[in-house]
Fold this protein.
Amino acid sequence: MPGGSKEQADTAEMLAEAERLHSRGHGAVMIAAIPEPGTVLLVREYAAGVHRYELGLPKGRMDAGEAILDAANRELKEETGFGARKLTHLRGITLAPGYMTHEIQLVLAEDLYEERLPGDEPEELEVVPWKLDALHELVLREDFSEGRSIAGLFIVREVLAGRA
């Protein structure tokens, strides 16, 4: 077989036909809001998948035609009661790229101001400020298990440390 073995060709064909779980909707955003240097805002909300309240970064779905930074600021206002004058798209984070197409966009929100928008949550979320230098304590808590938030906080900590 030109350019490779029959085994490589069979593997390539199998990979091309592999079933993928496709995300629905228009994308999603996750926001690391910094109310003051060294502090990030978390939200406590009910996580139906594990039947308990969990801490995590604010996050939500993007609306059709909505830009990443606009969606991030809207979700921030809905979930925390704050908007941001400075928004920076850091990167996408995937859950399981081997079989899922879902990717959430991590946004850093700075220079916050108070503004609340009505959201789609069934109850008001508790906003919990957390010191970035105490991430080692946060990741050991039973009520902080969502992998995207864990990864996002470590990325944000490194980005902010690189500015110093």
